[in-house]
Amino acid sequence: MDRQQAVGWLHRRAGLGLHPHDLKAEGKRDPDDSLDAFLAPPATPRDIWADADLDPKNNGRATAVQAWLGALIASDRPFHDRRTWMLHGWLVSSMDKVRNPEAMVEQIQLFERSGDVDFADLLGDLTVDPAMLVYLDGWTTTAEAPNENYGRELLELFGLGEGNYTEADVQAAAIALTGWKFNRRDRSAKFVPRRHDDTSQTLLGATGVNDVGSVIDAVINDPAHPGFVADRIISEYLGDLTGDTREDVRTDLISTYEATGRRLTAVIERALRLGLAGASTTTVLDPIRWLVICARATGVDLSGLRRSATQSIREMGQVPLFPPSVAGWPRGTEWLTSSSLIARTNVAAVLAAATDPSEPLHIAAADNDVDQLAEHLGLREPFGVGTRRAIGSAVDPVGRLTIALVCPESLTA
């Protein structure tokens, strides 16, 4: 990759895309300086939902979604917002069951704060997070009737992976995690000793497990855990690596995870450096990241979308705060269904129509400059023959830009 391609890859893969002016400016910087700036902690705190009315009786669920989507489009911390988005799709709760927008927002804020802490601390906080207590029924579990839902997903989806635990481990985790309640009135979690079974359990070979801390210790100290985290980061940021390349990268990321106190940011940074050196494959963008990248590239903000694209955004199959199951959203080519692609085309048409004529992408479309369109979008490679032909066949700039936004090359990173 040359410098411009590297910037495009980095911001489409690990960020939220760039406006063409910013893309050009970053392409002139030293690559290491550009990456360091991209990874740097935000200079100022931010509360996306500070002014949002999240009362469910006042359409608070929709407000919570719109506020987050708007913040992603306007983000001044794209690496960190992309990391939060990853955590939302990995350590899943959904407003379909939680119902309380404020509880869901507080979980996202937990992810915002915790991307650069010891992953054990994040898992511990998540275990007693009010939204998670509701979503996986942790608030109903008692000494008399331990609920296995959270313990099972902690082992399978959050910490170890399928095949790395037994049913006895699930039962032990469930017993050790009894005793927590959720107060819907003030959205607080509370430990109630009389509801807890304090009997020492054996979990993943660790003995003396009887509370949240000892459950998390057992998980993160299991030999399968570092590799599970490495596999997740590879999938999210580097794609479907295979063979010796995958094994070499996996070993490198495991070492980074263990050497940096289990900090996800350090692992992601290492993965990106390996990706910039060539260890990556093409990945399909999920609908929301694709939408945000396109909106930022065209200079269209949320107000330009809200009026006419809301239904199509839902039809793409992905709405923030509403993952369809504890396993999260579909991944990779699973997104390339006919219904999702039709919805993306409708959204692309709205974005193209809302793009100001002074915007670089509109100017390139008006000039029928196909190479410039690809460069402005930060694509790693020029458009292929089929896409060039399709763009050239459109009769006006809006049509050309619509095709450029929704063509196969633009659906990937």
Please give a structural write-up.
This protein is 58% helix and 4% strand. With 413 residues, the chain is mainly alpha-helical. The protein has a two-stranded antiparallel ribbon with strand order 1-2. Strand 3 and strand 4 form a beta hairpin. The longest helix is centred in the middle third of the chain and has 17 residues, at 243-259. The mean pLDDT is 95.
Contiguous helical run count = 22
Protein structure class: mainly alpha
Helix content: 55-70%
Question: Shape from CA axes?
Answer: globular
Strand content: under 5%
SSE pattern: HHHHHHHHHHHEEEEHHHHHHHHHHH
Would you report the number of β strands?
4
Task: Report the radius of gyration as a whole number of Å.
Answer: 22 Å
Low-pLDDT runs of 5+ residues are: none
Q: Please give the order of strands in the largest beta sheet.
A: 1-2
Mean pLDDT: 95
For the sheet with most strands, the description reads: 2 strands, antiparallel
What is shown here, in short?
The chain is built from 22 helices and four strands.
What's the arrangement of secondary structure elements?
Elements: H1 3-13, H2 20-27, H3 31-39, H4 60-73, H5 78-90, H6 95-98, H7 101-114, H8 119-127, H9 130-135, H10 149-159, H11 167-176, E1 180-183, E2 188-191, E3 201-203, E4 206-209, H12 212-220, H13 224-238, H14 243-259, H15 264-276, H16 287-298, H17 302-315, H18 338-354, H19 360-366, H20 370-376, H21 385-393, H22 397-406
Antiparallel strand pairs: 1-2, 3-4
Helix pairs in contact: 1-2, 7-8, 8-12, 10-11, 13-14, 13-15, 14-15, 16-18, 17-18, 18-22, 19-20, 19-22, 21-22
